[in-house]
Each structure stands twice: as C-alpha cells, then as structure tokens.
Design a protein that fits this description.
The chain contains 18 helices and 5 strands. The chain is mainly alpha-helical. The strands form 2 sheets. A 3-stranded antiparallel β-sheet has the order 4-1-5. Helix 15 runs antiparallel to helix 17. The two termini are 26 Å apart.
Length: 435
C-alpha cells in the first residue's frame, strides 16, 4: 500500500506528467459543466422527471453513458456515442472497402484521413439523432415540454445537440493528445462515475423507507467488489508464448541467443466490445424513445436492459466486436514475419506461416475466453439488478468500463514514471498494459 502512495507522490515530481493530469481533469470538468447546461427552448426539469418515470431502466441505461445529460436534454444530451458509432462504421468499412483498408495502412497520413471521415460521420449521426429527438419532443404530451414548436425549434435543437457532441469529440481528442490518453474512454468513465453519488443517495433513501433491506444492499456491495476483483484478474491475465532468438555473429561479437516470451492478453480488445455493442443498441433506441408512436415506444422498451432482445443482441455483439477488434489490433502474420526477420522463433513451431497459424489459433481461443468473460461480467449483474429492482443502473457494463479505464490510466501514468527512473505503483513490477 505504501508503494502505491509513493507512486502517486512521484507523479507530481514530473512537471510534464503533472501538467497532463491537470489538463485532463480540467477537460473533464468542462465536460461535466456542459452536461448541466440546458438546451434552449426545453423545460429540462419537467422533461427529466417525465423521462425518468416513463423510461425506467432504459433511460437509466442511456444516462449511464451520457452522465445524466440525455434525461435532462442538455447540450451534451447525445454524449460521445455518435462518435463511437461513426468509429464502428468506419472500421467496418475499412474491411469492406479496399481504398479505406489501404488508407489505414498508410501510417500517420492515413490515420488523419480516417479520423477526418470519423468526424464527418459523427456529425451526420448526431444530426439524425437530434432531429428525431426534436420531433419527438414536439409530439410528447402535446408539446408541453417545449416553448415554441416548429422548424425553428427543430433546427435550434439539431444545431445545439450536434455542436455539443462535436465539442465532446474535440475534448476527447485533446485529452488523448495533451492529457494522459484514452480521451474518449475517460469521458465515458466520467459520465458513469458522475451518476454514482445520486445512485447512492437514492439507495439510502429507499433503505430509510424500508423498501430495501440493509442486508440486500450489503450483498449487492459485496457482489460489486467480487466483480471488480474478477475484472482486474482477467484484465491482467496473459498467455506467455515462449520465444527463442538465434545467435548471430557480427565480427567478433555474438548477438541474440536469449529466451523471452510474447505476451498475449486474455482480453485483447479491452472495454471496446461492450462500448461498441452498447452504442449500436442505443442508436435506434435513442431515436425510438422520442417518437410518440405506441409500437415504436414498445420497440424501444424491448431494447432496454433486462429484455430478451437486448440480452441476445448485446451478447452477440460483444462476441463479434471482441473478435473484430482483436483482428484490428493484432495481426499474427505481421508478428510472425517480424519474429523471422529478427531471428526469433517459437520452440517447436517452424518460422513463417506455421508460426502465424499457431498464433492465430492461440489468439482465437483467448478471444473466445475473453468474450465469455465480457458477456458474463456485463450480463450477470444485469440479470440480478432486473430481478430485484435495484434503483440504479450500475451493473456489469459500467463496472467493466470504470475498472478497465482506470487500469488503462494507471498503466499510462506508470509508463511515464518508469521512463523517468521513478518507481511505479507496484513494487513487484510494472502494471501490465491493456494494449
């Protein structure tokens, strides 16, 4: 424990790291302030009370990612999810469209163009979602929640919500470039953590009103602690593949010959699959939730947490994105070629294609285990929460994101410390990175 505190103490001894942390906190503070600025022309308080009462678990699921901004319809109501949806579409298109796939392999220049396309996609998705929200608000309870219905209100709402999402996207990019990294993930992290105090207060109120027993609350807390410990264990878990480097004689010196290992994480994709899966499910549900048509509202409710449709779609998408994102970040062919180039080989496996086939087979098995782990963590608490009507949605998905992003952030901070000859947060070695 003392090593952890000394590690955090060393953080403020590095001017660059200190400025990055303060910059990140400042950007997150701006994000939280914007989450409370109301959209012009909307009675936010009455609308929030109505949506929370009518939306139930579905609205709580949306608010988990927007930090409560959607139920209040603030300028950040759409949150960062349109950006994530656009990122998914662009990444899928890089596989389908050869020109985009070639662009993704062109290094920094290609990455900048793909980022530009992602930004355009974010704006387009935000315009569509905000327009349907505006139309839905006009028809909701005969327009009592807005001041002046019409095209003026619709255009103002589209402009406000789209600008809000674009600003959040800019904040995330600034945190990634000038802060401690993982800007988009940290914004989602901040939105989830911001909901925790109100959830605790509402739980305490229900305990005082004898609607929840203290024993059940303690049991729920114990379950959350166990899940957090399980997440940390799985996120740090690795499969170490032994690698041997052949000796090379250059002049009178002998190079290589050492034995090392290639670490493959159990969950290579990290928290990306649940975030992507949630984004895909939330896209139609967000639009449907604001359309005052009975069958559309029924469809939106079927996409809410705890329903069979949501469970099947969510689990299937987690597995899909686990395999998809793993294929994006880890190429067995490239790894096998690099090992062969530098004289490395896996004992018992021939260099070249045989090595790539072996790595591909191991990676498939690890990804399957990682997918099962993600589905279990995301869905098991959701079943328990739905069964016992816990008054806040802080289930497995949110815990996975919070713990995963926290591990990412600590890993990045520790990298700064170690590169500057400071001890990390753990005495027994560096905290394993997630990617």
């Amino acid at each position: 424990m003392s090593s952890v505190f000394s590690g955090f103490k060393n953080v403020f001894k590095i001017p660059e790291l200190k400025s990055r942390i303060l910059f990140t906190l400042g950007m997150l503070a701006i994000y939280r302030v914007g989450a409370h600025i109301p959209t012009p022309g909307i009675n936010g308080e009455e609308l929030s009370a109505f949506l929370n009462q009518a939306g139930g678990a579905l609205m709580g699921f949306f608010d988990m990612f927007s930090g409560g901004a959607l139920s209040r319809v603030t300028i950040f109501a759409l949150g960062i999810m349109p950006y994530i949806s656009a990122s998914i579409i662009i990444q899928l298109l890089t596989v389908v469209i050869p020109a985009l796939g070639k662009l993704a392999k062109e290094g920094e220049a290609g990455r900048k163009k793909i980022t530009m396309y992602t930004r355009y996609g974010t704006v387009a998705i935000s315009i569509v979602q905000s327009f349907f929200i505006a139309v839905g608000l006009e028809g909701m309870n005969d327009g009592v929640f807005i001041s002046a219905p019409g095209w003026g209100f619709r255009l103002l709402t589209v402009l406000t919500l789209t600008s809000g999402t674009a600003f959040i996207m800019w904040l995330g990019e600034q945190i990634t470039e000038r802060g401690i990294g993982n800007g988009i993930s940290l914004i989602i992290f901040a939105g989830i953590v911001a909901q925790l105090p109100s959830a605790v207060i509402s739980t305490v109120s229900l305990v005082r009103a004898n609607e929840l027993s203290i024993f059940f609350v303690l049991l729920l807390l114990a379950m959350m602690i166990v899940i957090v410990a399980f997440i940390i264990f799985m996120e740090r878990g690795q499969r170490k593949i032994p690698v041997q480097y052949a000796k090379r004689v250059v002049g009178r010196k002998v190079y290589g010959g050492q034995a090392t290992h290639l670490p493959l994480k159990i969950n290579v994709s990290g928290v990306i699959p649940p975030i992507f899966a949630s984004s895909i499910i939330m896209f139609p549900a967000t639009i449907a939730g604001f359309i005052p048509i009975p069958w559309v509202q029924s469809f939106a409710q079927q996409l809410g947490p705890g329903t069979w449709l949501n469970t099947i779609l969510f689990a299937s998408m987690i597995f899909f994105f686990a395999y998809f994102y793993t294929a994006v970040v880890f190429n067995p062919v490239d790894v096998a070629d690099n090992l062969k180039k530098y004289g490395g080989y896996i004992p018992g496996i021939r260099p070249g294609p045989k090595t790539s086939e072996y790595l591909y087979r191991v990676l498939n098995r690890l990804t399957f285990v990682g997918g099962l782990y993600l589905v279990a963590v995301c869905l098991l608490p959701q079943f328990l929460i739905s069964a016992y009507n816990v008054p806040f949605y802080f289930g497995g998905t949110s815990l996975l994101i919070v713990v995963g992003v926290a591990l990412d952030t600590v890993s990045q901070m520790e990298s700064h410390l170690i590169t500057r000859s400071y001890d990390g947060f753990l005495q027994k070695g560096r905290l394993r990175g997630r990617r």
